[in-house]
Write a structure and sequence with these properties.
Helices cover 55% and strands 15% of the residues. It is globular, with a radius of gyration of 16 Å. α1 links the parallel β1 and β2. It starts with a strand and ends with a helix. The protein contains six helices and four strands; from the N terminus they run βαβαβααβαα. It has a four-stranded parallel sheet, sandwiched between helices.
């Protein structure tokens, strides 16, 4: 539980952040988080100069939030270099990035640092794929969610085997 900022981003003017906001509000409510603000913007994920994201980073830098909620990591950023840099900055301010898919980044641990590197590479791979349609992006998002579930299940089974 803690104070969180919700960050929603879409790439084009014909898209809406409504679903992201609704889903993230529910996610925060279930986890018992207090929402400090909701930040929405229409911008390419490859651009690092995004006004609303800068506002969220300012809250993090000022230690006004404990976490940033996003529907998926690609909503926060698609540039590998920027993603790794912002995750490192957030870590230095003790702020986590929590994706609705269940991924979190605790960069104080070796496994958190490894996940940061792996996810940054994944985002870069998705960014560079020549998408033909929004449907293909949706399929890729579902594949990412399934991979995250598999990762959590694997970690859970390893934890259970350690406690047996």
């Amino acid at each position: 539980m803690g104070q969180v900022a919700i960050y929603c981003r879409v790439s084009t003017d014909d898209q809406s952040c409504e679903r992201q906001e609704r889903d993230l509000r529910a996610f925060a409510r279930r986890a018992g988080h207090r929402i400090i603000g909701v930040f929405k913007e229409t911008a390419s994920g490859a651009k690092i100069d995004r006004a609303e994201r800068k506002k969220v980073m300012a809250l993090a830098r000022a230690h006004e939030i404990d976490a940033i909620l996003v529907t998926e990591l690609s909503r926060w950023g698609r540039s590998t270099q920027d993603l790794v840099q912002t995750l490192d900055d957030l870590h230095s301010w003790k702020v986590s990035v929590l994706a609705q898919t269940g991924l979190s980044f605790d960069l104080s641990t070796a496994s958190g640092k490894l996940m940061r590197t792996i996810m940054a590479a994944h985002v870069a791979t998705v960014e560079n794929m020549p998408w033909r349609s929004v449907g293909e992006r949706e399929i890729a998002a579902k594949i990412s969610a399934v991979a995250a579930c598999c990762s959590r299940a694997s970690a859970s089974s390893r934890l259970n085997s350690l406690t047996d």
